[in-house]
Write a structure and sequence with these properties.
Elements (H helix, E strand, L loop, with lengths): L3 E3 L4 E6 L2 E6 L4 E4 L2 H13 L1 E2 L1 H8 L5 H13 L3 E3 L19 E5 L27 H14 L5 E7 L7 H18 L2 E8 L6 H9 L3 E5 L4 H7 L9 H14 L6 E6 L6 H12 L3 E6 L12 H23 L7 H12 L13 E4 L5 E2 L13 E2 L3 E2 L1 H11 L13 H4 L4 H8 L10 H21 L2 H12 L2
Parallel strand pairs: 7-8, 7-13, 8-9, 9-10, 10-11, 11-12
Antiparallel strand pairs: 1-5, 1-6, 2-3, 3-4, 13-14, 15-16
Helix pairs in contact: 1-3, 4-5, 10-15, 11-15, 11-16
Cofactor: [4Fe-4S] cluster
Pfam families: Radical_SAM (PF04055)
InterPro entries: 4Fe4S-binding_SPASM_dom, Aldolase_TIM, QH-AmDH_gsu_maturation, rSAM, rSAM_sf, Sulphatase_maturase_rSAM
């Protein structure tokens, strides 16, 4: 080989318990480096460009020529070393010519019977009467989904609000209609919803159970924390009602694991206590945390030391997760599940999520949005359930989202996992859905490094954990 250059943005090293792990950044693949590869990589990292003469001079006294050649070839194959005369490779933009939907989100009601102080929904109306989607619109949305998912064996329908259970008659109609249609087409369907739980009854729970509708409950922890933000329209805390409803739900519903979704805000950041209460006291199967950093009322947003503290607490809980995983136990920490799944699968994202590709959200009038979080915003829509998807307009957005080079994402070591971050988070905080979530960048890089360490430790001590706990979870998503 001639002169080779080191491509630093394609390689990231993480040392775990004396093992040198190389993450191939473009594919999030992990490799354990032997002494030869470590030495070769360290040399190129130090000098930037090297040729065979320098390699022999620096390392020939320590390693056999064939071992050096093999290591070099591996690093060239991974595009970590490249011909020094070769220009940097341009980013490949994947063209979007069709939208093969797998998921439709129905915003069944803008209304909610609660008045949570941090709610981001721009179309929200309280109390629960709201503006409800009608069945004709929902039926057209289902038909659009089935048409776009012609090549898929399974589709997903998500009910969202406001509070989706405040339009329970429509949910029943949609489930009955969709079950009939997928049976005709030889497909399967998965239904799910996120609820504040206050409107649950035994009859509703039994119906959800019979139709295997996945349920996630929005709940922020023990009474003192939950009641800070999750209140009635009259300002009363809702913990007692929600906790009672959750206990009833978990006693009757067994179709699928039930998770809790926690919003962390200023003053509600005790990750450990919240997880322990929701998982161990109330009995949720898993608990996931979403730090609020771009809500419409700035006083609730986490920033600076508070945000860093949340990530440190999540790592503390993550260490508990690893200890339990090594014992073969699952403590139900959704954020760790997702992180380890991304690493285990070798995530290679061109865009941050399925919004606009596998997923679209439908508002009460049938207009199509990138996702449920954009419903009610001033961002563009992309067609209507009656007239179809505006594919050129949607394609322009998704293709534009793939190149965030102007923001520095091209050389970020977690670009294949993050891909610039949530469109709505960026839009809400910076007014541009393509602008990266800069306030998260360093924290997310550290979180991914923590995930690599955790993955390697679990893999070394109890590799069956992934087969028994992560793979079944992915199969039900």
């Amino acid at each position: 080989m001639g002169s080779l250059a080191f491509i630093p943005h394609n390689a990231h090293r993480v040392d775990v318990d004396g093992r040198a792990m190389l993450m191939h950044v473009p594919t999030t693949s992990l490799f354990e480096m032997d002494e030869v590869s470590q030495s070769v990589l360290d040399l190129f990292r130090r000098v930037g460009v090297a040729d065979s003469d320098l390699l022999r001079a620096e390392l020939g006294h320590r390693f056999a020529p064939e071992d050096l050649a093999q290591s070099l070839q591996g690093l060239v194959t991974l595009d970590i070393l490249r011909d020094a005369g070769q220009p940097d490779r341009p980013m490949t933009i994947q063209k979007v010519e069709e939208v093969p939907l797998s998921t439709i989100i129905l915003n069944v009601n803008t209304g909610c019977n609660l008045a949570c102080t941090y709610c981001y929904k721009e179309d929200l109306t309280t109390p629960a009467k709201g503006e409800r989607m009608d069945f004709a619109t929902a039926r057209s949305a289902i038909e659009l989904l089935l048409a776009q998912a012609a090549g898929r064996d399974k589709v997903n329908v998500v009910f969202f609000g406001g509070e989706p259970l405040s339009n329970m008659p429509l949910i029943r109609q949609v489930v009955d209609y969709t079950e009939g249609r997928v049976a005709e087409l030889g497909k399967a369907v998965d239904f799910s919803l996120t609820t504040n739980a206050t409107l649950l009854t035994e009859e509703i729970v039994d119906w959800l159970n019979a139709h295997r509708v996945g349920v996630t409950v929005s709940m922020d922890g023990p009474r003192a924390l939950h009641d800070q933000n999750r209140r009635t329209v009259g300002g009363r805390g809702t913990y007692d009602v929600v906790a009672a409803k959750v206990r009833m739900l978990l006693s009757r519903y067994n179709a699928r694991p039930v998770g809790a979704r926690v919003t962390l805000t200023a003053g509600v950041t005790d990750v450990i206590a919240i997880h322990d209460h929701l998982k161990n006291d109330l009995g949720f199967a898993e608990v996931g945390f979403g730090p609020a950093t771009s809500g419409p009322i700035a006083v609730f947003n986490l920033k600076g030391d508070m945000l860093r503290g949340v990530f440190e607490d999540m790592k503390t809980l993550g260490r508990r997760y690893v200890e339990a995983a090594i014992r073969g136990e699952n403590i139900g920490f959704s954020n760790m599940h997702q992180l380890l799944s991304d690493i285990a699968q070798g995530m290679k994202k061109a865009v941050p999520c399925g919004a606009g590709l596998g997923l679209l959200a439908v508002d009460k009038g049938g207009d199509l949005h990138l996702c449920h979080r954009f419903v009610g915003s001033d961002q563009p829509t992309y067609g209507n359930v009656d007239t179809g998807i505006d594919v050129p307009k949607l394609a322009a957005f998704v293709e534009g989202a793939q190149d965030r080079s102007n923001f520095g994402c091209k050389t970020c070591r977690i670009r294949s996992i993050c891909a610039g971050g949530c469109y709505h988070e960026s839009y809400a905080r910076q007014g541009d859905p393509f602008a990266p979530v800069y306030h998260y960048c360093d924290l997310l890089r550290d979180w991914v490094d923590f995930g690599i360490e955790s993955y390697v430790r679990i893999l070394a001590a109890n590799p069956s954990f992934f087969r028994h706990h992560l793979e079944p979870r992915r199969a039900t998503q």
